[in-house]
Write a structure and sequence with these properties.
This protein is an alpha/beta fold and about 140 residues long. It has five helices and five strands; from the N terminus they run βαβαβαβαβα. Helix 3 links the parallel strand 3 and strand 4.
């Protein structure tokens, strides 16, 4: 018997995820590691572009970096929570900031979860699955 487990996708079901990060490598990694045959990962390179996409399209989940030029992730989070259509959208902060002030501020502004870089993409996929399951339970 082999000790290698068969590969399975962590994220399942029809999902649309928006990743907003000014780092092109992070956007590419997110697309590669979180996409599945039924999970569509789209990206935005700044807060303004991310907000525009969220306002004009449907997404099931948003991943947002905090430190971006223009609208920061904190400001993006404020705009999301102020919009009645987006108010309940799960927003996961993915950032290199791991200081208590950033963590506390993100949750105070309405973050659903907080993950620090460097990202363990497999672990993040499990966290996203939990966030989505919790969101659906709340909505039910």
């Amino acid at each position: 018997m082999s000790s290698e487990a068969e590969f399975t996708y962590v994220l399942q079901g029809d999902l649309r995820i928006l990743v907003t990060d000014d780092d092109p490598i992070m956007r590419e990694f997110a697309s590669v590691y979180l996409s599945t045959p039924t999970v569509n990962v789209e990206t935005a390179d700044c807060g303004e572009a991310g907000l525009a996409r969220l306002r004009s399209q449907h997404f099931d989940l948003a991943l947002v970096d905090l430190d971006m030029p223009g609208i920061s992730g904190f400001e993006m989070l404020e705009h999301i929570r102020a919009n009645p259509r987006l108010r309940d959208l799960p927003v996961v902060i993915v950032t290199s900031n791991e200081d208590m002030a950033s963590i506390d501020r993100a949750y105070a502004l309405g973050a659903t979860s907080f993950v620090t870089k460097p990202v363990n993409w497999r672990l993040l996929a499990y966290q996203l699955r939990f966030v989505l399951r919790a969101q659906r339970a709340l909505a039910a």
